[in-house]
């Protein structure tokens, strides 16, 4: 039962954070951020929000991280008014490296495929 509630809450937080980032956060540093997943602790006190950005540059990744850190208070308060839970979890943003990793593997496979046809 508890695991089902955590999973449902993770989906709801992901949906709402995506909506808040699109409609409420005006910081240009967080434009183009895609929320890829949310992990909530068993006691529902903390939530790690995984995100990805299109740019591979370290400078834009750093700017995005700063923008998200600055917007965390707004996002959390907005989340608190949208979700019907007793206590809004503390939010932590972490860059999702799996998207980058997947595109790198794609690139390597395409190179191998191209070499086979030469």
UniProtKB/TrEMBL annotation:
Q: Where in the cell is it found?
A: Cytoplasm
Keyword Zinc listed? The answer is no
Keywords from UniProt, A to Z, are: Cytoplasm, Ribosome biogenesis
What GO biological process term is on the record, naming one? maturation of SSU-rRNA
- The keyword Cytoplasm is assigned to this record: yes
Concerning InterPro entries, the annotation shows: KH_dom-like_a/b (IPR015946), RbfA (IPR000238), RbfA_dom_sf (IPR023799), Ribosome-bd_factorA_CS (IPR020053)
Q: Which GO terms describe its molecular function?
A: ribosomal small subunit binding
Gene Ontology CC annotations of this record: cytosol
- Pfam families hit by this protein: RBFA (PF02033)
What is stated as this protein's family in its record?
A: Belongs to the RbfA family.
Q: What does this protein do?
A: One of several proteins that assist in the late maturation steps of the functional core of the 30S ribosomal subunit. Associates with free 30S ribosomal subunits (but not with 30S subunits that are part of 70S ribosomes or polysomes). Required for efficient processing of 16S rRNA. May interact with the 5'-terminal helix region of 16S rRNA.
How is this protein organized at the quaternary level? Answer: Monomer. Binds 30S ribosomal subunits, but not 50S ribosomal subunits or 70S ribosomes.
Q: Which PANTHER family match?
A: RIBOSOME-BINDING FACTOR A, CHLOROPLASTIC-RELATED
Query: What is the protein's name according to its record?
Result: Ribosome-binding factor A
Record the organism: Levilactobacillus suantsaii
Q: What is the lineage of its organism?
A: Bacteria, Bacillati, Bacillota, Bacilli, Lactobacillales
């Amino acid at each position: 039962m508890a695991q089902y509630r955590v999973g449902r809450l993770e989906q709801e937080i992901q949906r709402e954070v995506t909506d808040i980032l699109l409609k409420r956060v005006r910081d240009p540093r967080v434009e183009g951020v895609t929320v890829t997943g949310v992990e909530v602790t068993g006691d529902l006190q903390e939530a790690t929000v995984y995100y990805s950005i299109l740019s591979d540059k370290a400078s834009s990744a750093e700017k995005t991280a700063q923008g998200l850190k600055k917007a965390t208070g707004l996002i959390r308060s907005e989340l608190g008014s949208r979700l019907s839970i007793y206590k809004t979890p503390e939010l932590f943003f972490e860059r999702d490296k799996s998207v980058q990793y997947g595109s790198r593997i794609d690139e390597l496979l395409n190179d191998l495929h191209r070499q086979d046809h030469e």
